[in-house]
Design goal:
Four copies of one chain form a homotetramer. By secondary structure, chain A is an alpha/beta fold. Helix content of chain A is 45%, strand content 11%. Chain A contains 13 helices and nine strands. A nine-stranded parallel β-sheet of chain A has the order 1-9-8-7-6-5-4-3-2. The radius of gyration of chain A is 18 Å and the shape is globular. Chains in contact: A-B, A-D, B-C, C-D. At the A-B interface, α4, α5, α6 and α12 of A face α4, α5, α6 and α12 of B. Chains A, B, C, D: One of its GO terms (molecular function) is (R,S)-4-hydroxy-2-oxoglutarate aldolase activity.
Chain lengths: 327, 327, 327, 327
């Protein structure tokens, strides 16, 4: 098990821009939270009758709390947030806040399709204890989501949010890449602290780091499959579904990157690619939850219309872990 | 102005499968509603402060009520449903029910991301007066929306819906085409009566008609741009954004198709393509609402993050209508 | 068997713009060939050792010559032209010229990546007997193939070609849709007579017909799957891989469309969609050639890297024909 | 200027698998060439009348020969190979062979659409002096280019090639990604030594390195935009259009990566992203050639249908270099 203290001092030394943010994170008066580090995007456990199982949620959190994560993302894509009511979304965040270690960050997904609803959800998320809001791009009218529209949307949200805002671009779900020029513009907003980029285009990520270098703005990789490469181009952490099951390994990969042990980092990264793809693009949340069951967490069922894996898929999922030595 | 009586007898004579549905539409006991005809997907008017403007909604309905539409689609993509609260969605449907002519159909969009929420919204839509529910494919987890998952989703909704269900595939918004095999399977459900297909792939539409020919199942074109071609391959009507502004013309195109006046139909269709693209793919709902303002309806603003058209876009929009003789 | 005479008088009466082209087709002095009608895109037969089998080619042509086709497309995508040497391309066209009926048109594919090579191939195609050149969009540098670049390319080719030029847009192979504005510009060139559009977007096809209505410019459907719909929006024929095996049926569909028997046309069109998809998008040229073997033509092997169908695929291919009553 | 000696010893120490290839590169008997390093993909200069300008080609080579490149790629996508005749392709390679330093590698693009033509071109490329053949995926029939078809194609080429074969996947041009499983299978062929991967998906590149780790198989990045990230995940070099104009800088980036100076590498990488995108995806070969003119090489015109940059584009191109301090 990796110690959190080591990592946090490593982060102090190596992360881009850290020297600009002395004394830890804070909100208000233009000061920004430092979001560098690894986050599992927490899944939402359901009972057999599709109720949110808050008890299992807390149990999972207690187990996850032992790893040197920077914090937790709640209501990200892996949290099945589009399947939750507004009150469930808030209650889940509230419970996680209570169950998780005090020194870690809680990033709460507060994105909705309309700007107004996003503002309201963001304010509510702050009220139930979120440290920052992670806001997915609205996407249903993607044909009209120009840079100007997205800048307007995020600016409004950030203006009215009592907590810092993290942009969230996840084209596999939204069919929309938050344009580089929009990110650059938004990085200048005093209440926007970074982006979670799940697209996997590392050229783009490098460009984002480069063009926001004069801002207090941090880039997080949205998946463990390109975590090493993301660190290499200047990202400061990752929100990794895989960290829900291989938490120690993802944190170790972070540490190897931050301490410059690139050869070992590369070997570890290689062994994480197939498992990561399996619990994300290949088998989605059903795959992630099935794997959680294997690794001592509560995965359980998804809400419909997400379906359970077929036995064939389950076997392929297992192979993606076992062939890399994780099962 | 076209008389509704003519059209409805034309529909009786020509629409596929009508002979199987004697005595008008009804629900329950496996009997199905006949949805053949033209529908404007009603927009949701907002005040300057982004409140739903129910008065303007009713005024628009009164004007639209004079055309020989088969009915109205409420809470389709053009209704900005993702920007409305659940209670707004229901209130809008309720108001439309009261404002519209009694003899027309009200198809209410009730799709949500989760199966359970969709069921609940569908039941509620029935309670406020919808004649049928039009259910968009869930899409956020499109990577997992296999045919099996979608069949499961729609079957559950149709099982529990007190009103007939119309499938709704709109890949421009959802990034997802409801697969042909899923549609064919679902066409056998006693409470599923048809599909609104907005993809514009007329080969696919012909195949849908062909492979569901032994079912009481009807195909509606999701846009006026390919309405003539859709009739040619066996569709029985259309849900056409353009009908919000050129209602008489879209109904005339229907009549020309149903009475076999293909040469005139073709000429009219040609003149509708650019205006149609302008109020859909090219300029979206902001373009549609701007055009409504020009044509004597209340268009008004959209909710954010949708933005107003720039002056340049507005000029191009105007050209798409004027160059075809509509302005 | 349908008589060609009937069809040709039907075409005289109904095809758009025919009245402007009295006295049959001709080249030079701005007069244009009338390309209305159905064309099979001829396959290139190979021996077991992958040599062009000119004898089998001639035998196929003799059989195909009995149908009321307007002519033949040689070196279209189905002719495996990218696998032939320049001299093979010319020799195949030359042989087809000799083997085919004198009163039919020979459209020869002469597209190459560079403008200069396309010009040279077009001139050579004319020398070996082509009546018109059908010129696919260059595509390897599709990122740079702006409307301006494509207009420049086709203008140069048409300027220097001794025979009329037909534009050819086939995004499934090229990843590139010849833009509408480029087509409209090019339709004004005295030596450009039409377009073969294989994309299947019937809204676009209607718009092409509409916006070129003041030119001598004809639109051909590039596939039998949307042939009826294409006629409905103003196309005047089709280049249909399926016509290599169901020649009578595709010609019958043409006749039903041209004589306004839309109900029968629709029924026939429906039964052709799956077989058409099977020999195009689904199983490609290997599927088409396999089917030719079944229908009394010589199909034979493709050149590598195209592979033979697996037994499973072959069974699925057979089903697509038998389930529609063609086998 | 960086010395080649330093780099080559660095490569000896750090490149994956180098220990297995003692004594330099060689062909035959299962021994493989070591392709680690940086390569400019040489452009083909044309005169004002679109003839190949062999003199300018040689002049460019003499200038490029002063950088510590591992070698040169000739007839890659940037060489406009689809616009050259077969004899021009060979003559260009022959001239480059004579003009370039003896100790460097010449990788010659020999891909054609058919397997047979590719084999013949590969043999010819060997005869005019190529050290290895770099073979782009056939793509016109991409719908049929299954893993099996591609494995068959490359196996045949590699079997019959007198020189080692490098796979080449460039989806921006071909619309086709050589599938991972095909690459893994092909990596076991004794005459296939690596892949140039231009897709930019670094997760995929890491997986390729991981799953071919037991083979003598090397991965080259196909663009300078993700060169650092590629090294981080185990690539051993790159074929970089940008190296035609910023040769010293790309080689410096290589050296920084190979010597573990990741912080400096990151800074340099950042400044190369926009210039790299400008001469590849954004402005293509016309952009690259224009930039070559600025940097003391001969760029000159492209063959049609590639067009010159507009003044506006040229200004934007200049900005992409000047804003990063290169002009």
């Amino acid at each position: 098990m990796l110690g959190c203290g080591v990592l946090s001092s490593v982060r102090q030394g190596l992360s881009r821009g850290l020297s600009r943010k002395v004394g830890g994170w804070a909100t208000g008066e233009g000061r920004k939270v430092d979001i560098a580090g690894i986050y599992p995007p927490v899944t939402t456990p359901f009972t057999a009758t599709a109720e949110v199982d808050y008890e299992k949620l807390e149990e999972n959190l207690h187990k996850l709390g032992t790893f040197p994560f920077r914090g937790f993302v709640v209501q990200g894509s892996n949290g099945e947030f589009p399947f939750l009511t507004s009150s469930e979304r808030l209650e889940v965040v509230s419970r996680v806040r209570q169950a998780m270690p005090k020194d870690k960050l809680l990033l709460a997904g507060s994105g909705c399709e309309s700007t107004q609803a996003t503002v309201e959800m963001t304010v509510s998320m702050a009220q139930v204890g979120a440290d920052a809001a992670i806001v997915v791009t609205p996407c249903y009218y993607r044909g009209r989501m120009s840079s100007a529209a997205l800048v307007h949307h995020y600016t409004k949200v950030a203006d009215l949010s009592p907590i810092p805002v993290v942009l969230y671009s996840v084209p596999a779900n939204t069919g929309l890449d938050l344009p580089v020029d929009a990110v650059v513009t938004l990085s200048q907003h005093p209440n926007i602290v970074g982006i979670k980029d799940s697209g996997g285009d590392v050229t783009r990520m490098g460009l984002l780091v480069h063009k926001t270098r004069r801002q207090d703005f941090q880039v997080l990789a949205g998946s463990a499959g390109f975590l090493l490469a993301s660190y290499a181009v200047g990202a400061v952490g990752g929100v990794c579904a895989l960290a829900n099951v291989l938490g120690a390994q993802v944190c170790q990969l972070e540490r190897l990157c931050l301490t410059g042990q690139w050869e070992d980092a590369q070997k570890l990264q290689h062994r994480l690619i197939e498992p990561n793809t399996a619990v994300t693009r290949r088998f989605g949340i059903p795959g992630l939850k099935k794997t959680m069951d294997w690794f001592g967490y509560y995965g359980g069922p998804c809400r419909a219309p997400l379906q359970e894996l077929s036995p064939t898929d389950e076997e392929a999922l297992r192979m993606d872990f076992s062939s890399n030595g994780w099962l």
